[in-house]
Amino acid sequence: MAFFRDQTRQVTAVILALAEHPSTWRYAADLCQRLDLTAGSLYPVLMRLADRGLLETSWEPDVPADRRPRHRYRLSGPGRALAVELAAAPPAAQAGPARAVGRIGRRPWPRPEAT
Amino acid sequence: MRSRLERVGGWVASAVALVPFAWLSVLITVSADATTLRTTLEGALWMALFGTPWAIAARLLWRAWWRQTGSRLAGLDGPAWLLTAAAATLPADRRDWGAAMTAELAQVQDRAARWRFAAGGARAAVFPPRGSPAAVALAGALAVVAVVATALVTGATMPAGRVFALTFVGLVGGLATLTVARSGRVGRAWAGPATAAVALAGVAGCIVATTWYLLEHPTYQKGGLTGVTLPPVTAVVLAVGLAGCLWLALAPPRWLRASPHARRFGIAMAIALAAGLVLASRRYGEVMGYLFIGAVLVVLAGSLAAAAVGRSFRAGVGACVWALALGAPLLVAVWLVEALRVYGRGGGMLLDGDAGGVGLNLGDAVWWSLMLLLLWVLPLGVLGAAAGSAPARRRRPAPSS
Asked: In sequence order, what are the beta bridge partners of A34?
């Protein structure tokens, strides 16, 4: 049970961190540092959020030739709506919507329009 | 520097490939009743005969891998190596995430932090999250139920086949659960209906024939002694071989799915391998000569043709691997059926015509098929692939080091 509680907390923390500056693209290494998460915990959360249409992802444009483009992330419309819901809910009630991110075969939020 | 690494790596690959043969050579010499110069030389000669193709094949495979991937990896540090290797195992629909992780690692400068990031990323790449944990749980539960049911059924009806059945069902259940966990559902990355049909036919034929042998002849008599038809080690080897072939056919790795030529040639070679064994059995009443020469000719020619048509070494090697993965179960199944026919007509063992109980054929079929395919036929197939791709290689400009 502790494992699932941790996962739920991590999902909540990532969504809320991304919601701090919702229009800004964020990077995984910065999120790891900011949330004190390992890459092994962060990437599965990002993958789940992206699978459910809560996260927009894109590759960094216009990078110098000697550097590889980085993958960047920000919340989609439904992701931002979920973040508002999570921020408004007391900590005990945050588990419900956050846990739904890991649920099977359900997409409680519509996929955002392609940008 | 990189070309030196390529050269040294090639020598190391050859040496590593020769180690098992050198060890076998020493073992044969030591275990001989009377160690003479003649037995030592004979042992060394046989091992040189089998070891040389493997040494050359290992060098060719190393060179192909190096040019495709290795030279790119040579410039990376440990964490980048780890993460790149782990990212290569990601299913196709998650490959972007592998690229994202490796690109992000470049931003982490501190050495310890790089290792931490790479280890975490590797964990996420090897066990990526799927949207369907219930499907994984269901697959795992079904696997456990299948193992328990197999234990009960074989305990009551076929104790001689218990080790084989439990190992096979456990492995297939485990592999199916792993595939569901990594790819969402079984069959997402399969290699097509023809490949699956040949693999399923071979594995099913093998299981039916093995079951028949175990029910009718659980033991055999030879020289006044009683032996078990399917000893535990042979049972495990057969089960691992069949489960591995099935997995390769139903969820092949990315590199094996790349060339349709490889698959088609592989299927044709697998069927030819089984048909050749039937012809040899009908004509000579034994198959030793066919295994050493006929099977090699089939795979050598097939891999060469696949490499020539696909214009790449990789297509030839892929065809060779498909031929062995699909051909091994077919070969064992056909062997067991033919052995019964030959034995019924008063002949001896299908392998060499020697006398022995009919149950002995099961061990012969498993060990000789698998060992010869792996030790003798596979490296010669790789050599065929190299020969077939040589004209295309000559036309291509050499990669810069």
From this structure: none
Q: Cβ contacts of residue B156 below 8 Å, gap of 6+?
A: none
CA dist B401 and B398 (Å) reads 9
Query: Would you call A67 and B106 a contact, using CB atoms and an 8 Å cutoff?
Result: yes
Asked whether residue A32 is domain-assigned, the answer is yes
* A61: containing domain: 2-100
A111 in any annotated domain: no
Residue B183's pLDDT is what?
67
Query: How many domains does one find in chain A?
Result: 1
ipTM above 0.85, yes or no: no
The C-alpha of B74 sits at a distance from chain A's nearest C-alpha, in angstroms, of: 17
**Minimum CA–CA partner of A106 in chain B:** B131
A86 domain-assigned: yes
Return the CATH number at A15: 1.10.10.10
Cβ contact A48–B129 (<8 Å): yes
Q: Hey, are the CB atoms on A71 and B123 less than 8 Å from each other?
A: no
Question: How many residues in total does chain B contain?
Answer: 401
- Is A110 among the domain residues? no
Q: What is the distance in angstroms between the Cα of B111 and the nearest Cα belonging to chain A?
A: 14
Give per-10-residue mean pLDDT for chain B (401 aa): 77 90 79 70 82 93 83 79 86 84 89 92 84 79 94 88 94 89 61 89 95 88 80 94 90 82 94 96 91 94 94 93 95 94 84 84 92 92 93 65 41
Identify the sign of the CA torsion B23, B27, B30, B32: negative
Q: Which candidate from B104, B131, B132 shows the least CB-CB separation from A28? A: B104
Q: Indicate yes or no: CB of A51 within 8 angstroms of CB of B131.
A: yes
The H-assigned helical ranges of B184-259 are: 193-216, 232-250, 254-257
